[in-house]
Amino acid sequence: MAGREVFGEEELNEVVEVLKRGVLFRYGFEKEREGVFKVSEFEKNFAEYIGSKFALAVSSGSAALKVALESLNLPKGKEIITSCFTFVATIEAIEEAGFKPVLCEIDETLNIDPNDLERKISENTVAIIPVHMMGSASKIDRIMEIAKEKNLKVIEDNCQSTGASFKGKKLGTFGDIGCFSFDYVKVMTTGEGGMVVTNDEEIYKQAEFYHDHGHPHLQGVGRGEEKRERKGFNFRMNEIQGAIGLAQLKKLNSIIERQKENKKTIKEEIKNIELLKFRELPDPDGEIATFLAFFLPDKEKTEKFKSKMKENGVNPAILNYWHFTANVESCGGEYPQSQDILDRCVSIEIKTLMDEETINKTIDAIKKAASSI
């Protein structure tokens, strides 16, 4: 995931504009900052890009999940269902917000299995967090149908798939609120940082209050004179992050297009290898091509395949511990379907600036690994 690959003069110029004025805090100091509000501008541009009415920048993707959960004011102690295959932050946010995480199996989309989702819903369920893993949509249409049938809130964890879409609609805009991450290894980065988006003004206000200690951010009223709207915490984004975000957002479409080209080139060369079965993509046109993932027939062959790839200079992505085992350790339960899928999965990171030599090396490593099985 490649935002860091394309740092250049654009990011530097945006940051210098902030440093020249010396105001790194996103609120207030109007005279000193001479009208420059980078975080607010980033929020506005991001909302337009994603297609949401409101966007709130926060300090990380993990913070986005926590703020989103708090903004819905759901009854504490209830159950929230999510995927067993997700970065551990999804589970941590649910627990930190005072809810009980319930894990679902995944299918060969590497995202939540709607069939298991239906089985896991109980009288204590109040929300679903579908996670759009590794650049591609979950079966969000079916998930939204289930949520509507059961009157459940939906928080989309789109931290790994910024810019991806499903049938022409950007991920993060299907549920009640959507979450994004801009950390250093994401498709666009602000070093750290995140965003929540929603079309519901009340949810947005609750998120805005919560992320800044309950401040209502009233025009013309000093922070020290404001009355607290609710309990909250500090998950604010600073102006340096907002400045970098503005430059990165302008590059996002080109990053995605280059990744798609690189992935297509590799996939075309290996598509006829009978041993491999490619990941299911609910909307191939809408993915952002951060990974090429495929499955082998069993765990033994997969481990041998990965070992041969390493011998030929290409390391498959390591996903299982922080994205699966740690979640099971936290929540308990057994997920045999997911375990089998992950045991048979090979994932290769696709970068934006892959040159011809790197692409050919990757193709060659896959072919040699397949021929050894």
Query: Which class do the helix and strand fractions yield?
Result: alpha/beta
> How much strand content do the residues show?
5-15%
Summarize the main sheet.
7 strands, mixed
Strand order of the largest sheet: 1-9-8-5-4-2-3
Question: How many helix segments?
Answer: 13
How many domains make up the 3D coordinates? 2
Q: How would you sum up the global shape?
A: globular
CATH superfamily of the largest domain: Type I PLP-dependent aspartate aminotransferase-like (Major domain)
Helix proportion range: 40-55%
Architecture of the largest domain, CATH level 2?
3-Layer(aba) Sandwich
CATH class of the largest domain: Alpha Beta
What does this molecule look like?
The protein has 373 residues and is α/β, with parallel strands linked by helices. Helices cover 42% and strands 14% of the residues. The protein contains 13 helices and 12 strands. The strands form 3 sheets. The chain has a 7-stranded mixed beta sheet, sandwiched between helices. A 3-stranded antiparallel beta sheet has the order 10-11-12. A two-stranded antiparallel ribbon has the order 6-7.
What is the strand and helix layout of this fold?
Layout: H1 9-21, H2 30-33, H3 38-50, E1 54-58, H4 61-71, E2 79-83, H5 89-96, E3 100-104, H6 114-120, E4 125-129, H7 140-150, E5 153-157, E6 165-166, E7 169-170, E8 177-181, E9 194-198, H8 201-210, H9 239-270, E10 277-278, E11 291-295, H10 299-311, H11 320-331, H12 336-343, E12 345-349, H13 356-371
Parallel strand pairs: 2-3, 2-4, 4-5, 5-8
Antiparallel strand pairs: 1-9, 6-7, 8-9, 10-11, 11-12
Helix pairs in contact: 1-9, 3-9, 4-5, 4-8, 9-13, 10-13
